[in-house]
Structure formats: structure tokens, C-alpha cells
Design brief:
Layout (H helix, E strand, L loop, with lengths): L15 E5 L2 H11 L1 E2 L3 E2 L16 E9 L2 E12 L6 E10 L8 H16 L4 E7 L3 H10 L11 E5 H31 L15
Parallel strand pairs: 6-7
Antiparallel strand pairs: 1-4, 2-3, 4-5, 5-6, 7-8
Length: 206
């Protein structure tokens, strides 16, 4: 599969990395992995947008990477309020390599992305929301303190940071640390060729 490496091809086991993803890399990853058994094809903002629109949202593409190979990607859209004093984040899409699911990678990436955006973005972010049509997304956002989507109307989960910001940041930090600590431990085992290693990334997978 494209993007995978054999162990013999890798001389530097770089381990876990969280970084920005360029649009070309994002699109290729999505092309390979953006499907779900529950809802089929996962749509993303970049499906219909060749490049960021002038006056449109600020597009943030971020990834969780294992030994230089993307394992999960997320697209967040940041929009300014009418008065320009605050901003809101829409979780557009999160996609995990189809071979690496059910390890918490998507939730860890979303948590870290939310943490970084909320702590650094200017003007300050006051609201976060998502169209929650995937059951796993609903459950993940609920664990961060987002409201459940209504039974009728637009299926939107949301959170207002002016009301629950401290708890939200703590929940995101706890989720990211819990998953990243486990991944880093396995990276350590992998680097030392320890038989305890449980590879979470795509190194050595076909």
C-alpha cells in the first residue's frame, strides 16, 4: 500500500510525531483511507476546494505520524466571528489509516489539535463544533464534553469554551497523554527490538 515502508528500508526509527500535513499529503491519505463501514465515504473540506478560499475559513491540516508515515489526519476549519474578536473551530474530518483503527489514534490527534488551536490561536477560540454523523465521532466528542447532536435537524455537536473551557482542556490533555504515552512506550520497545513491542504504526505492514 502506498505510504508504507518495510523495516529493512527504515534506518532511522523516528517514532511518534505530531505535525502539520500539506494539502497534497492530506488528499493522498484521504484517497486511500477515507471510508467507514457505518457511513461509507468520508467527505472532507478539500474534496471540493482546490485551495483555501480568500475570505474563507483558515484550514488546519494536522497529522499523527509514526516513523515518518502518516497514520491519522485531521482537518479543522477556523472562522472568525462577525466582530473579529473571537473564533470558532469546526472539526471537518478525521481519517485514520484503515489498518490502524481502534487504537485511539483519531481521538488522540483530535485532542492534540484542539489543545494546540485553543492555546495558540488569535483571536481566541470560543466555540468548537462538528457535524456528528459517524457514531465513533459522536462518542469521541461526548468524551471531550461536546453536546450530543439533536434527534432532529442538523446533527451538530458543540461546546462553548466560556462555559466549560477548563474541563475541556483537561479532558483533551488526558486523552492525548493516555494514548501518546502508550504509543511512545511501544516506540521505545520497537527501537530496541524488544519482543514486547506492539507496533501501532505502519512500519513492516503490507
Amino acid at each position: 500500500m502506498a505510504g508504507h515502508m518495510d523495516m529493512d528500508e527504515l534506518t532511522d526509527k523516528t517514532g511518534l510525531e505530531y505535525r502539520s500535513i500539506d494539502s497534497e499529503e492530506f488528499r493522498e491519505f484521504v484517497r486511500l483511507h477515507a471510508t467507514s463501514e457505518e457511513i461509507g465515504r468520508i467527505a472532507t473540506y478539500l474534496d471540493e476546494t482546490a485551495s483555501p478560499e480568500e475570505g474563507g475559513p483558515d484550514v488546519k491540516l494536522l497529522g499523527l505520524v509514526g516513523c515518518r508515515v502518516p497514520c491519522a489526519v485531521v482537518c479543522c476549519l477556523v472562522s472568525l466571528s462577525v466582530d473579529g474578536k473571537t473564533a470558532a473551530v469546526k472539526l471537518d474530518s478525521v481519517v485514520v489509516d484503515r489498518q490502524l483503527r481502534r487504537q485511539g489514534l483519531g481521538a488522540a490527534l483530535v485532542a492534540r489539535s484542539f489543545m494546540d488551536l485553543v492555546s495558540t490561536y488569535q483571536p481566541p477560540i470560543n466555540n468548537l463544533y462538528a457535524h456528528s454523523v459517524h457514531p465513533a465521532t459522536v462518542n469521541m466528542l461526548r468524551s471531550f464534553g461536546f453536546s450530543d447532536p439533536p434527534l432532529t435537524g442538523a446533527p451538530i455537536s458543540a461546546i462553548n469554551l466560556s462555559e466549560d473551557g477548563d474541563k475541556f482542556r483537561q479532558r483533551c490533555n488526558d486523552r492525548f497523554q493516555m494514548v501518546s504515552n502508550r504509543l511512545k512506550l511501544n516506540c521505545s520497545y520497537c527501537r530496541s527490538n524488544n519482543r514486547k513491542a506492539r507496533r501501532w504504526c505502519n512500519i513492516g505492514k503490507e
